[in-house]
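Researcher: I need the complex structure. Ligand is adenosine-5'-triphosphate. Inputs:
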Amino acid sequence: MPDVLPDADWRGRKDLDRLCEVLGAQEGEARFVGGAVRDGLLGLPVKDVDIATLHRPENVVERIKAAGFKAVPTGIAHGTVTAVLNGWPVEITTLRRDVSTDGRRATVAFGTDWVEDAARRDFTMNALFADPQTGTLFDYFDGRADLAARRVRFIGDPLARIAEDHLRILRYFRFTARFGALDRSSPDYAACVQSATSLMALSRERIADELLRLLGLPDPCEVIAAMVEDDVLKPVLPEVNDLGVAVLATLIRAEHQQGIAPDALRRLAALLPLDSGLAEQIGARLRLSNKARQRLRKAITLVDATSPEALTYRIGPESAVDQLLLGRAFSPMLAPKIATWPVPKFPLSGGDLIAMGLVAGPEVAKTLQALEQSWVEAGFPPEGQARAMAAQMIKGWLK
Ligand code: ATP
Ligand code: MG
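Model: Output:
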Protein backbone atom coordinates (compact mmCIF):
# COMPACT_ATOMS: atom_id res chain seq x y z
CA MET A 1 0.00 0.00 0.00
CA PRO A 2 1.57 3.33 -1.06
CA ASP A 3 2.35 6.02 1.54
CA VAL A 4 0.92 8.81 -0.59
CA LEU A 5 -1.88 8.92 -3.10
CA PRO A 6 -0.30 7.66 -6.33
CA ASP A 7 -0.42 9.88 -9.35
CA ALA A 8 -2.97 8.68 -11.87
CA ASP A 9 -4.91 9.86 -14.91
CA TRP A 10 -7.83 11.21 -12.95
CA ARG A 11 -5.66 13.61 -10.98
CA GLY A 12 -4.56 15.24 -14.22
CA ARG A 13 -8.12 15.81 -15.41
CA LYS A 14 -8.61 19.23 -16.93
CA ASP A 15 -9.52 21.91 -14.38
CA LEU A 16 -9.33 19.63 -11.31
CA ASP A 17 -6.17 21.38 -10.11
CA ARG A 18 -7.81 24.74 -10.60
CA LEU A 19 -10.88 23.63 -8.65
CA CYS A 20 -8.74 22.43 -5.75
CA GLU A 21 -6.86 25.70 -5.85
CA VAL A 22 -10.00 27.84 -5.56
CA LEU A 23 -11.16 25.66 -2.68
CA GLY A 24 -7.95 26.51 -0.88
CA ALA A 25 -6.12 23.19 -1.20
CA GLN A 26 -2.78 25.01 -0.96
CA GLU A 27 -3.77 26.31 2.46
CA GLY A 28 -4.95 22.86 3.52
CA GLU A 29 -8.62 23.78 3.23
CA ALA A 30 -9.69 21.07 0.78
CA ARG A 31 -8.82 17.38 0.47
CA PHE A 32 -9.80 14.43 -1.68
CA VAL A 33 -11.85 11.89 0.25
CA GLY A 34 -13.82 8.67 -0.03
CA GLY A 35 -13.86 6.47 -3.10
CA ALA A 36 -11.26 8.43 -5.06
CA VAL A 37 -8.63 8.02 -2.34
CA ARG A 38 -9.57 4.41 -1.61
CA ASP A 39 -9.64 3.32 -5.26
CA GLY A 40 -6.63 5.50 -6.06
CA LEU A 41 -4.59 3.72 -3.38
CA LEU A 42 -5.58 0.38 -4.86
CA GLY A 43 -4.50 1.58 -8.30
CA LEU A 44 -8.05 1.23 -9.61
CA PRO A 45 -9.60 3.66 -12.08
CA VAL A 46 -11.37 6.60 -10.43
CA LYS A 47 -14.50 8.10 -11.93
CA ASP A 48 -16.18 10.08 -9.18
CA VAL A 49 -14.13 12.48 -7.16
CA ASP A 50 -15.29 13.73 -3.78
CA ILE A 51 -13.67 16.68 -2.11
CA ALA A 52 -14.07 17.65 1.54
CA THR A 53 -13.57 21.27 2.51
CA LEU A 54 -13.85 23.40 5.58
CA HIS A 55 -15.63 26.20 3.68
CA ARG A 56 -19.37 26.55 4.14
CA PRO A 57 -21.58 25.45 1.23
CA GLU A 58 -22.59 29.01 0.21
CA ASN A 59 -18.95 29.96 0.15
CA VAL A 60 -18.14 26.86 -1.88
CA VAL A 61 -20.74 27.93 -4.46
CA GLU A 62 -19.19 31.39 -4.65
CA ARG A 63 -15.69 30.05 -5.08
CA ILE A 64 -16.72 27.60 -7.78
CA LYS A 65 -18.62 30.26 -9.69
CA ALA A 66 -15.82 32.81 -9.38
CA ALA A 67 -13.51 30.29 -11.01
CA GLY A 68 -15.94 30.04 -13.92
CA PHE A 69 -17.31 26.56 -13.20
CA LYS A 70 -20.94 25.64 -12.91
CA ALA A 71 -22.08 25.04 -9.32
CA VAL A 72 -25.10 22.84 -8.61
CA PRO A 73 -26.47 22.84 -5.04
CA THR A 74 -27.14 19.07 -5.10
CA GLY A 75 -27.52 18.58 -1.36
CA ILE A 76 -26.92 21.92 0.18
CA ALA A 77 -28.72 21.06 3.46
CA HIS A 78 -26.17 18.26 3.92
CA GLY A 79 -23.36 20.48 2.74
CA THR A 80 -22.88 19.09 -0.76
CA VAL A 81 -22.30 21.22 -3.83
CA THR A 82 -21.44 19.77 -7.22
CA ALA A 83 -18.92 21.55 -9.41
CA VAL A 84 -19.22 20.71 -13.07
CA LEU A 85 -15.90 20.66 -14.93
CA ASN A 86 -16.44 20.15 -18.67
CA GLY A 87 -19.49 18.03 -17.95
CA TRP A 88 -17.66 16.08 -15.26
CA PRO A 89 -19.27 16.42 -11.81
CA VAL A 90 -17.11 16.70 -8.71
CA GLU A 91 -18.87 16.60 -5.34
CA ILE A 92 -17.69 19.00 -2.70
CA THR A 93 -18.90 18.51 0.84
CA THR A 94 -18.34 20.79 3.80
CA LEU A 95 -16.81 19.12 6.85
CA ARG A 96 -19.68 18.04 9.06
CA ARG A 97 -20.78 15.96 11.93
CA ASP A 98 -24.12 14.26 12.40
CA VAL A 99 -26.10 15.95 15.15
CA SER A 100 -29.02 13.55 15.21
CA THR A 101 -29.87 10.42 13.28
CA ASP A 102 -32.88 8.12 13.17
CA GLY A 103 -31.59 5.30 11.04
CA ARG A 104 -32.83 6.94 7.88
CA ARG A 105 -31.70 10.54 7.75
CA ALA A 106 -29.28 12.74 9.61
CA THR A 107 -29.37 16.32 10.79
CA VAL A 108 -25.91 17.75 10.32
CA ALA A 109 -23.80 20.56 11.66
CA PHE A 110 -20.93 22.03 9.68
CA GLY A 111 -17.52 22.17 11.26
CA THR A 112 -13.84 22.59 10.60
CA ASP A 113 -12.55 19.41 12.17
CA TRP A 114 -11.17 16.79 9.77
CA VAL A 115 -11.18 14.02 12.35
CA GLU A 116 -14.81 14.63 13.20
CA ASP A 117 -15.71 14.53 9.52
CA ALA A 118 -13.80 11.28 9.08
CA ALA A 119 -15.55 9.82 12.12
CA ARG A 120 -19.04 10.29 10.69
CA ARG A 121 -18.13 8.27 7.58
CA ASP A 122 -19.06 4.60 7.41
CA PHE A 123 -15.93 2.49 6.96
CA THR A 124 -12.29 3.11 7.72
CA MET A 125 -11.37 2.58 4.05
CA ASN A 126 -13.88 5.29 3.09
CA ALA A 127 -12.55 7.85 5.54
CA LEU A 128 -9.12 8.50 4.04
CA PHE A 129 -8.25 12.05 3.02
CA ALA A 130 -5.50 13.05 0.61
CA ASP A 131 -3.94 16.42 -0.05
CA PRO A 132 -4.72 17.17 -3.71
CA GLN A 133 -1.28 18.59 -4.40
CA THR A 134 1.14 16.44 -2.48
CA GLY A 135 -0.96 13.30 -2.19
CA THR A 136 -0.21 13.24 1.54
CA LEU A 137 -2.64 10.93 3.30
CA PHE A 138 -4.62 11.63 6.46
CA ASP A 139 -5.65 8.37 7.97
CA TYR A 140 -7.30 8.86 11.34
CA PHE A 141 -8.82 5.38 11.70
CA ASP A 142 -6.26 2.99 10.21
CA GLY A 143 -8.09 2.82 6.93
CA ARG A 144 -4.95 2.06 4.98
CA ALA A 145 -4.14 -1.00 7.04
CA ASP A 146 -7.73 -2.22 6.65
CA LEU A 147 -7.61 -1.56 2.94
CA ALA A 148 -4.37 -3.51 2.66
CA ALA A 149 -6.00 -6.39 4.54
CA ARG A 150 -9.19 -5.99 2.48
CA ARG A 151 -11.09 -5.50 5.68
CA VAL A 152 -14.34 -3.53 5.58
CA ARG A 153 -14.50 -2.14 9.08
CA PHE A 154 -16.96 0.27 10.61
CA ILE A 155 -15.58 3.37 12.28
CA GLY A 156 -16.56 3.00 15.91
CA ASP A 157 -19.10 0.53 17.22
CA PRO A 158 -20.72 -1.32 14.31
CA LEU A 159 -24.15 -1.69 15.97
CA ALA A 160 -24.28 2.00 16.85
CA ARG A 161 -23.20 3.03 13.38
CA ILE A 162 -25.87 0.83 11.81
CA ALA A 163 -28.50 2.25 14.15
CA GLU A 164 -27.62 5.72 12.83
CA ASP A 165 -28.13 4.65 9.24
CA HIS A 166 -29.45 1.20 8.35
CA LEU A 167 -28.32 1.52 4.77
CA ARG A 168 -24.80 0.87 6.04
CA ILE A 169 -25.74 -2.81 6.31
CA LEU A 170 -26.10 -3.06 2.56
CA ARG A 171 -23.10 -0.81 2.00
CA TYR A 172 -21.05 -3.19 4.16
CA PHE A 173 -21.94 -6.09 1.88
CA ARG A 174 -21.38 -4.05 -1.26
CA PHE A 175 -17.91 -2.91 -0.23
CA THR A 176 -17.10 -6.41 0.97
CA ALA A 177 -18.06 -7.85 -2.41
CA ARG A 178 -16.04 -5.17 -4.12
CA PHE A 179 -12.86 -5.02 -2.06
CA GLY A 180 -13.12 -7.19 0.93
CA ALA A 181 -12.34 -10.63 2.01
CA LEU A 182 -15.60 -11.88 3.49
CA ASP A 183 -15.05 -12.53 7.18
CA ARG A 184 -18.13 -13.97 8.80
CA SER A 185 -16.50 -14.04 12.21
CA SER A 186 -15.89 -10.28 12.39
CA PRO A 187 -17.90 -8.02 14.72
CA ASP A 188 -18.80 -5.90 11.69
CA TYR A 189 -20.39 -8.84 9.94
CA ALA A 190 -22.15 -9.94 13.11
CA ALA A 191 -23.61 -6.48 13.60
CA CYS A 192 -24.98 -6.44 10.04
CA VAL A 193 -26.61 -9.84 10.54
CA GLN A 194 -28.01 -8.84 13.90
CA SER A 195 -29.49 -5.61 12.53
CA ALA A 196 -30.83 -7.00 9.27
CA THR A 197 -34.51 -6.48 10.10
CA SER A 198 -33.92 -2.75 10.48
CA LEU A 199 -33.53 -2.66 6.70
CA MET A 200 -37.31 -2.66 6.53
CA ALA A 201 -37.36 0.88 7.90
CA LEU A 202 -35.50 2.24 4.88
CA SER A 203 -37.16 3.67 1.81
CA ARG A 204 -37.51 1.09 -0.91
CA GLU A 205 -35.67 3.26 -3.39
CA ARG A 206 -32.57 3.37 -1.22
CA ILE A 207 -32.69 -0.38 -0.64
CA ALA A 208 -33.15 -1.09 -4.33
CA ASP A 209 -30.36 1.25 -5.34
CA GLU A 210 -27.82 -0.32 -2.95
CA LEU A 211 -28.95 -3.85 -3.71
CA LEU A 212 -28.70 -3.40 -7.45
CA ARG A 213 -25.29 -1.80 -7.05
CA LEU A 214 -24.19 -4.86 -5.09
CA LEU A 215 -25.65 -7.25 -7.66
CA GLY A 216 -23.98 -5.37 -10.51
CA LEU A 217 -20.45 -5.95 -9.19
CA PRO A 218 -18.18 -8.39 -11.02
CA ASP A 219 -18.70 -11.20 -8.51
CA PRO A 220 -21.12 -10.69 -5.63
CA CYS A 221 -21.92 -14.39 -5.30
CA GLU A 222 -20.01 -15.26 -2.14
CA VAL A 223 -21.45 -12.26 -0.33
CA ILE A 224 -24.99 -12.88 -1.54
CA ALA A 225 -24.73 -16.52 -0.47
CA ALA A 226 -23.74 -15.41 3.03
CA MET A 227 -26.56 -12.86 3.11
CA VAL A 228 -29.08 -15.56 2.20
CA GLU A 229 -27.69 -18.06 4.64
CA ASP A 230 -27.67 -15.56 7.51
CA ASP A 231 -31.10 -14.13 6.66
CA VAL A 232 -29.87 -10.64 5.82
CA LEU A 233 -31.72 -10.60 2.53
CA LYS A 234 -34.87 -11.98 4.09
CA PRO A 235 -36.50 -8.69 5.17
CA VAL A 236 -36.12 -7.38 1.63
CA LEU A 237 -36.32 -10.47 -0.57
CA PRO A 238 -37.77 -13.43 1.36
CA GLU A 239 -38.26 -15.25 -1.96
CA VAL A 240 -34.55 -15.88 -2.39
CA ASN A 241 -33.13 -19.23 -1.32
CA ASP A 242 -30.10 -21.49 -1.94
CA LEU A 243 -31.39 -22.47 -5.32
CA GLY A 244 -31.39 -18.85 -6.45
CA VAL A 245 -27.83 -18.49 -5.20
CA ALA A 246 -26.81 -21.53 -7.25
CA VAL A 247 -28.41 -20.04 -10.37
CA LEU A 248 -26.58 -16.78 -9.67
CA ALA A 249 -23.28 -18.62 -9.50
CA THR A 250 -23.99 -20.33 -12.82
CA LEU A 251 -25.03 -17.03 -14.38
CA ILE A 252 -21.87 -15.25 -13.27
CA ARG A 253 -19.75 -18.03 -14.70
CA ALA A 254 -21.64 -17.90 -17.99
CA GLU A 255 -21.35 -14.09 -18.25
CA HIS A 256 -17.66 -14.40 -17.65
CA GLN A 257 -17.15 -17.20 -20.17
CA GLN A 258 -19.17 -15.44 -22.85
CA GLY A 259 -17.60 -12.03 -22.22
CA ILE A 260 -20.92 -10.40 -21.38
CA ALA A 261 -20.95 -7.51 -18.91
CA PRO A 262 -22.55 -7.97 -15.49
CA ASP A 263 -26.12 -6.78 -15.24
CA ALA A 264 -27.84 -6.19 -11.92
CA LEU A 265 -31.38 -6.95 -13.10
CA ARG A 266 -30.32 -10.21 -14.71
CA ARG A 267 -28.59 -11.17 -11.47
CA LEU A 268 -31.73 -10.32 -9.52
CA ALA A 269 -33.70 -12.54 -11.90
CA ALA A 270 -31.24 -15.36 -11.22
CA LEU A 271 -32.05 -15.24 -7.54
CA LEU A 272 -35.81 -15.51 -8.02
CA PRO A 273 -37.94 -18.59 -8.47
CA LEU A 274 -39.51 -19.14 -11.90
CA ASP A 275 -42.79 -17.45 -11.23
CA SER A 276 -43.74 -14.62 -13.55
CA GLY A 277 -46.20 -13.16 -11.03
CA LEU A 278 -43.28 -12.39 -8.74
CA ALA A 279 -41.81 -9.86 -11.15
CA GLU A 280 -44.66 -7.43 -10.56
CA GLN A 281 -44.59 -7.96 -6.79
CA ILE A 282 -40.86 -7.48 -6.48
CA GLY A 283 -40.85 -4.69 -9.03
CA ALA A 284 -43.39 -2.84 -6.89
CA ARG A 285 -41.53 -3.61 -3.68
CA LEU A 286 -38.27 -2.27 -5.07
CA ARG A 287 -39.99 0.55 -6.98
CA LEU A 288 -38.48 -0.61 -10.24
CA SER A 289 -39.40 1.14 -13.48
CA ASN A 290 -41.97 -0.50 -15.74
CA LYS A 291 -39.23 -1.37 -18.16
CA ALA A 292 -37.23 -3.10 -15.42
CA ARG A 293 -40.31 -5.01 -14.22
CA GLN A 294 -41.00 -6.21 -17.72
CA ARG A 295 -37.41 -7.36 -18.12
CA LEU A 296 -37.59 -9.19 -14.79
CA ARG A 297 -40.86 -10.85 -15.80
CA LYS A 298 -39.44 -12.02 -19.12
CA ALA A 299 -36.37 -13.40 -17.37
CA ILE A 300 -38.37 -15.50 -14.91
CA THR A 301 -40.99 -16.78 -17.32
CA LEU A 302 -40.24 -19.92 -19.29
CA VAL A 303 -40.90 -19.53 -23.01
CA ASP A 304 -41.64 -22.33 -25.41
CA ALA A 305 -39.56 -21.57 -28.50
CA THR A 306 -38.27 -23.87 -31.23
CA SER A 307 -34.98 -22.04 -31.83
CA PRO A 308 -32.84 -19.39 -30.14
CA GLU A 309 -33.84 -17.02 -32.94
CA ALA A 310 -37.52 -17.76 -32.41
CA LEU A 311 -37.05 -17.01 -28.73
CA THR A 312 -35.32 -13.75 -29.59
CA TYR A 313 -38.03 -12.80 -32.05
CA ARG A 314 -40.59 -13.27 -29.30
CA ILE A 315 -39.01 -11.61 -26.32
CA GLY A 316 -36.32 -9.40 -27.86
CA PRO A 317 -32.51 -9.80 -27.80
CA GLU A 318 -31.97 -8.41 -24.31
CA SER A 319 -34.37 -10.83 -22.68
CA ALA A 320 -33.26 -13.70 -24.89
CA VAL A 321 -29.68 -13.12 -23.70
CA ASP A 322 -31.01 -13.14 -20.13
CA GLN A 323 -32.71 -16.49 -20.68
CA LEU A 324 -29.69 -18.05 -22.39
CA LEU A 325 -27.25 -16.92 -19.70
CA LEU A 326 -29.62 -17.96 -16.95
CA GLY A 327 -29.60 -21.44 -18.42
CA ARG A 328 -33.32 -21.31 -19.04
CA ALA A 329 -33.18 -21.89 -22.78
CA PHE A 330 -30.76 -23.44 -25.28
CA SER A 331 -27.12 -22.69 -24.44
CA PRO A 332 -25.36 -19.73 -22.81
CA MET A 333 -22.77 -20.03 -25.58
CA LEU A 334 -25.29 -18.48 -27.97
CA ALA A 335 -25.58 -15.30 -25.93
CA PRO A 336 -22.90 -13.21 -27.73
CA LYS A 337 -24.42 -14.04 -31.13
CA ILE A 338 -27.99 -13.37 -30.01
CA ALA A 339 -26.98 -10.09 -28.36
CA THR A 340 -26.20 -8.61 -31.78
CA TRP A 341 -28.58 -10.62 -33.95
CA PRO A 342 -30.60 -8.23 -36.14
CA VAL A 343 -34.18 -9.26 -35.41
CA PRO A 344 -35.95 -9.63 -38.77
CA LYS A 345 -39.26 -7.90 -39.44
CA PHE A 346 -42.24 -9.93 -40.56
CA PRO A 347 -42.62 -8.77 -44.17
CA LEU A 348 -46.40 -9.19 -44.63
CA SER A 349 -49.40 -7.18 -43.49
CA GLY A 350 -53.15 -7.71 -43.40
CA GLY A 351 -53.40 -5.59 -46.54
CA ASP A 352 -51.14 -8.02 -48.38
CA LEU A 353 -53.42 -10.91 -47.49
CA ILE A 354 -56.53 -9.06 -48.64
CA ALA A 355 -54.76 -8.23 -51.91
CA MET A 356 -54.14 -11.96 -52.22
CA GLY A 357 -57.86 -12.71 -52.04
CA LEU A 358 -58.69 -12.97 -48.33
CA VAL A 359 -61.92 -11.21 -47.36
CA ALA A 360 -61.49 -8.38 -44.89
CA GLY A 361 -62.58 -9.49 -41.43
CA PRO A 362 -61.40 -11.43 -38.38
CA GLU A 363 -59.91 -14.13 -40.62
CA VAL A 364 -57.21 -11.70 -41.70
CA ALA A 365 -55.67 -11.24 -38.28
CA LYS A 366 -55.90 -14.95 -37.56
CA THR A 367 -54.25 -15.91 -40.83
CA LEU A 368 -51.58 -13.29 -40.35
CA GLN A 369 -50.76 -14.68 -36.95
CA ALA A 370 -50.59 -18.25 -38.20
CA LEU A 371 -48.39 -17.12 -41.07
CA GLU A 372 -46.06 -15.24 -38.79
CA GLN A 373 -45.62 -18.34 -36.70
CA SER A 374 -44.84 -20.51 -39.73
CA TRP A 375 -42.47 -17.83 -40.97
CA VAL A 376 -40.60 -17.85 -37.64
CA GLU A 377 -40.45 -21.64 -37.64
CA ALA A 378 -39.21 -21.65 -41.23
CA GLY A 379 -36.26 -19.51 -40.09
CA PHE A 380 -37.42 -16.05 -41.21
CA PRO A 381 -37.31 -16.49 -45.02
CA PRO A 382 -37.23 -13.35 -47.20
CA GLU A 383 -40.33 -11.57 -48.42
CA GLY A 384 -40.74 -13.51 -51.69
CA GLN A 385 -40.80 -16.79 -49.86
CA ALA A 386 -43.09 -15.39 -47.18
CA ARG A 387 -45.53 -14.39 -49.90
CA ALA A 388 -45.41 -17.86 -51.38
CA MET A 389 -46.17 -19.29 -47.94
CA ALA A 390 -49.09 -16.87 -47.63
CA ALA A 391 -50.47 -17.77 -51.06
CA GLN A 392 -50.35 -21.43 -50.20
CA MET A 393 -52.02 -20.94 -46.85
CA ILE A 394 -54.78 -18.79 -48.34
CA LYS A 395 -55.34 -21.33 -51.13
CA GLY A 396 -55.80 -23.98 -48.46
CA TRP A 397 -58.21 -21.78 -46.48
CA LEU A 398 -60.24 -20.77 -49.55
CA LYS A 399 -60.72 -24.36 -50.63
P1 ATP B 1 -18.40 4.48 -4.83
O1 ATP B 1 -17.23 4.10 -5.64
O2 ATP B 1 -19.37 3.37 -4.67
O3 ATP B 1 -19.03 5.78 -5.23
P2 ATP B 1 -17.70 5.93 -2.47
O4 ATP B 1 -16.85 5.56 -1.30
O5 ATP B 1 -17.31 7.13 -3.25
O6 ATP B 1 -17.80 4.65 -3.36
P3 ATP B 1 -20.23 7.19 -2.05
O7 ATP B 1 -21.55 6.57 -1.81
O8 ATP B 1 -20.03 7.95 -3.31
O9 ATP B 1 -19.15 6.05 -1.90
O10 ATP B 1 -19.95 8.14 -0.82
C1 ATP B 1 -18.80 8.94 -0.70
C2 ATP B 1 -18.27 8.89 0.73
O11 ATP B 1 -19.27 9.40 1.62
C3 ATP B 1 -17.96 7.48 1.22
O12 ATP B 1 -16.66 7.09 0.87
C4 ATP B 1 -18.14 7.65 2.72
O13 ATP B 1 -17.01 8.25 3.29
C5 ATP B 1 -19.29 8.63 2.82
N1 ATP B 1 -20.61 7.96 2.92
C6 ATP B 1 -21.48 7.69 1.92
N2 ATP B 1 -22.58 7.08 2.38
C7 ATP B 1 -22.45 6.99 3.72
C8 ATP B 1 -23.26 6.46 4.76
N3 ATP B 1 -24.45 5.90 4.52
N4 ATP B 1 -22.77 6.55 6.03
C9 ATP B 1 -21.58 7.12 6.27
N5 ATP B 1 -20.77 7.60 5.34
C10 ATP B 1 -21.18 7.54 4.06
MG1 MG C 1 -18.53 7.99 -4.87
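Model: Summary of the prediction. The beta strands are 30-33, 49-53, 70-75, 80-85, 88-94, 96-101, 106-110, 129-130, 137-138.
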